[in-house]
Amino acid sequence: MSELIIIAGGTGQGKTRFVNGMLKNTLLKDARGKDCYRPSGASRHQYIFDLNNEYIMPTEAAPAPYMRHTQANQKLFVETCKKLTGYTIVFEDASGFLRGKQAAELIRLIVQRRHNRNNWIILFHSINRIPPELMEYCNTFILFKTNDNLKDIDKKFKSQVINTMFFKIKDAKNHSYLIYKML
After folding, report:
1. CATH number for the 4-181 domain, one of 1.10.10.10, 3.30.1380.10, 1.25.40.10, 3.40.50.300?
2. Of 14, 154, 172, 175, which is most buried by a Cβ count within 10 Å?
3. Minimal CA–CA distance to 114: which of 78, 85, 141?
4. pLDDT in tens, 77-96
C-alpha cells in the first residue's frame, strides 16, 4: 500500500532521525558534529526535498535509487516526482512551502500515489502548518511535541483524535511521539 505519512513536531524533537530510521538510512556526523544521514544497502529508493542538508546522497542526476533536492524549487521537485515509481518521497521541513490550498499537481501526485507505488512522508514543525487538504489524504499521522496552541488546532481541524494526541504528547519527554493510523 502506498501511504501519505504526515509528521508534525517542533525543532529538535527527533522527526528527521525517525524518518531516516523508517528509510533505513545510516546516521553519520558532519564536520560540525551535526547528524546527517546516508542511504544504506537496506534503504529503499528515495527522493528527499532536503533544504537543511541533513541527507548525504548522490547529486540531482536523472532518477536514481537515492536523490535529494536542495534547490528550494518546488516546481522542479513536483516535476521530478511525476517521473518516479516505487519511491519514498520525503518533503523535509514543508512548513514554509505547503500552506493553504495546495497546487493541483502536488495534490494529484499524492492522490495517485498507489498507481505509481510511491510513499510520501511530509514533515511540519507544527500542527497548525499542516494544510487541512493534506490531512484528508493522510494514512498515518505521527505527532512529536510541538509549540502549538490547542485552541488554534481545534479551530483548524475540529478533530478529537488530533486534540487527544496533542494532550498526550504535550507533557511527554523529548523525542516521544504518537502514531495514529487514519485509514
Report:
1. 3.40.50.300
2. 14
3. 85
4. 888 889 999 999 988 888 77
Residue 88 grid coordinates? 519514498
- How far is the C-alpha of 65 from the C-alpha of 86, rounded, in Å? 10
Q: Where are the alpha helices (DSSP H) in the chain?
A: 15-23, 74-82, 104-111, 113-116, 132-137, 150-157, 160-170
Average pLDDT of 157-163? 93
In percent, the amount of the chain with pLDDT more than 90 equals: 34
Half-sphere exposure of 84 (CA within 13 A, CB side): 30
φ/ψ of residue 73, rounded to 5? -105, 95
- Sheet order of strands, 119-124 included: 66-69, 46-49, 88-91, 119-124, 4-8, 140-144, 177-181
Residues 124 and 107: their CA atoms lie apart, in Å, by 17
Residue 100's region, left for phi above 0, alpha for psi from -120 to 50, else beta, is left
- β-pairing, 88-91 vs 46-49, is parallel
Cα gap 151→154, rounded to integer Å: 5
Give the start-to-end residue ranges of the domains of the chain: 4-181
